[in-house]
Structures are given as C-alpha cells and as structure tokens.
C-alpha cells in the first residue's frame, strides 16, 4: 500500500505570540545545564551516529541527558536507539520524551509519524513550529546535557534551533575526509560563528576502514582532511572515527556502539568527543568562580605587553605585565613584568596558571586558546584596546573596560 505523505501548513504567529513562546521555552529549559548542537553542512556524514553515541556515552558517565532529533525529513535516532514504533505520552499539555534507562531521554519527529516509511512534506513554517514545540512542550526536566541532532545544511531547521536555544554552549562539527564534504562543513562552521555559537571541535567520521578480522586500517577515502581544516580555522580537532563494521551493526540493531564496546581505536575516538563535552562542566564552574572573584579579595591579572601597551595578540608579546589587585577596593596593588616562555600551543595558559593568574586581558585570541585558558581556570577578556596595563586593569575592576571585537580569532 502506498504511504501517504504527512503534509501540513502552519498558521502564522504574531510577534507577541512568538515572544511569549520564547519565554515558555526559556522556562522549560531552565534546568538544562548545557545545550550542544551536532552539526554538519552536508548530509550523509554520520552526524546522527555521532550524536546518539555521544548521548549514550554521557548517560553511561552518570549524566542526565536529553537527545533531541530535529532532522524532520530523515529522523534516524529512533532506529539507532531501537525505539522504532515507540509513541510518546501526553501529560496535560506536555509531551513526555521516551526514556532509556534512568539517565537518557529522547524526542524525535519519528515518534509522531504513523510509521517510519511516511514522508514528511512540510514547508518551513510548519517545521519551525514543531521545533518550537519540542523545546516548549516536551517535559525535559533536569538535565546535565541536551544534545541536539540537527539536519544537514544551514537552512531553516538549524537556524531555528540555534535561535530558539539562544544560549547554546557549543557545537560539534561532523565531517568526512573528502574535500567535497569539507567544503560544505566549512559553511557549517561559518554558520556557528555568525550566530556566536562556540565550536567545540571537529570530528572526522568514516576516517579509514577498520578491518574486523585483523584490525588493520585502510584508507578508503583520504584521511586527515578534517584535522587540516580544523587547524586552518583555529578549531580543536576532536577525533577520527573509522568505518567500523561494529558501528554499522550497532546502528542497524539499535545497540549504539559505545554501549557494547569499550576498547579499541573507535571506542577511544568516542571517548575523546565525550571528554570534550564533559569539560564544559569544569569550564562553567571556572567561569562562575572567576566572575565571583571581582569584589572578593585579591586577584592577579595578566596583560600581554609590547612597547608598554597591550599587545593585540597575546602570543606575540615581549612581556606579560602581572598585576596584583584588590577586588574589594578596585585598586591596583603592584605590578611585575615577566618574559614569557617560547610560544607553543598550550604553554602560555599553563605558565600563567603557575604564576597564579586569575584573568588575562587580551586584544585578540583564538577560540582554541580561550578554551585552554578556561581549562587552566583563567578567565579571558578579549577585544581590549592598546592601552597601558594599569589603565586596562583599573577599567576592568571598575566595570568600565570598553572591549571591542576579538581581532584575532585563529
């Protein structure tokens, strides 16, 4: 029997109604700790596989996780997690996500279709309305992480979810090694930057074939393209995930790879991605602690200096001015100038952490460097003007520092 397409037109909404809806979304997600988008500028790169295994890995780490599948036209999360045929329950005006074990909740358009073969033929407004409903009316409860499996491209659905979330903690970009995929994925990274979504890192999926018999890896496609792209764009490269028959089998049988396997190169790759997401918890604690330092006793602030003024790129500075301050009075206590060690990735954050620095004021700093400073419990202020260290520190302490754009994001 021929399947009937699911087709519908969405009613228009007034600006006031949308504002009220946005407030409801914010209220509904107020107990969600971190919101992560899994994105790609291109389809067929295995994005849903990465999202599903990440969500399961986080739940296995005793984190409360929500997995939201907004791939309206190709929802594959129900298949990957063996949830096909499951229907959601409705409690009053709220929808209850499908629960897997104690720590994983899942919502997908696939749960709302008569069966998995039905085609969804919706225009943009209807798709946007469903995404808003998933954020507003699904009873997510308290979550440590909400992982959003987004559809490919940079169109309506990814734009809607990014704007509706408002404060996404970051995006994981999934690519395959071929140049045609990398070209499209660059657009996904540009999409994130235009919307001020931090890019947590790049995952190169299908990076070589892992033989199930001998364990030898063969490059069916070229490999390393994702890592090269990440380096060129100043983004962290997270992992290479090979073409592993066990991943394919896990997706087909609804048993995610990470639930069944803990050893080998593929398992290590998924652990690296999970580890990066878990770091968000430590980074948020560090940021909160740093924000509470102002007005709470002494604080040490570092300023990269060239010719007596702030260097517009912290890695090119001749010296670092280390300024001790009294956060309660907002006064500068003393200053010492130190020559930095040789500039190599990760060296300066560790060095300044060893010097007891709490805050660094910089003109420009790449995203990866900012992440490294956060990992070393150092707050970063970028976009500062080329002025003397004392004037910058005083302005920072008195909340009058006029920070502009980050002039060096590489």
CATH class annotation of the largest domain: Alpha Beta
- The total of beta strands comes to 19
Query: Which homologous superfamily in CATH is the superfamily of the largest domain?
Result: P-loop containing nucleotide triphosphate hydrolases
Query: Major β-sheet, in short?
Result: 9 strands, mixed
What value does the Rg take, in angstroms? 23 Å
Instruction: Specify the number of helices.
Output: 13
Briefly note the structural class of the backbone.
Answer: alpha/beta
User: Into which percentage range does the β-strand content fall?
Assistant: 15-25%
Unreliable residue runs: none
The N- to C-terminal Cα distance equals 55 Å
Overall, the morphology is globular
* CATH topology-level name of the largest domain: Rossmann fold
> What does the average pLDDT come to?
80
Helix content: 25-40%
Q: Which CATH-level-2 architecture of the largest domain?
A: 3-Layer(aba) Sandwich
Total separate domains: 2
Notable traits:
410 residues, alpha/beta, Rossmann fold, Nucleotidyltransferase, domain 5, 2 domains, nine-stranded mixed sheet, six-stranded mixed sheet, globular
Tell me about this structure.
The chain folds into two domains: 6-289, P-loop containing nucleotide triphosphate hydrolases (Rossmann fold, 3-Layer(aba) Sandwich), CATH 3.40.50; 294-397, Nucleotidyltransferase, domain 5. It is built from 13 helices and 19 strands. The protein has helices spanning 15-28, 47-60, 77-80, 124-137, 156-165, 179-194, 225-233, 245-253, 257-260, 265-293, 347-354, 367-375, 389-397; strands spanning 6-8, 32-39, 65-69, 89-91, 94-96, 98-100, 104-108, 120-122, 143-149, 170-175, 199-210, 217-218, 237-243, 298-306, 309-310, 319-326, 331-338, 359-361, 379-381. The strands form four sheets. Strands 2, 3, 6, 7, 9, 10, 11, 12 and 13 form a nine-stranded mixed sheet that branches. A hairpin with a 4-residue loop joins strand 16 and strand 17. The longest helix is centred in the C-terminal third of the chain and has 29 residues, at 265-293. It is globular and about 70 Å long. The chain starts with 5 loop residues before the first strand and ends in a 13-residue tail after the last helix.
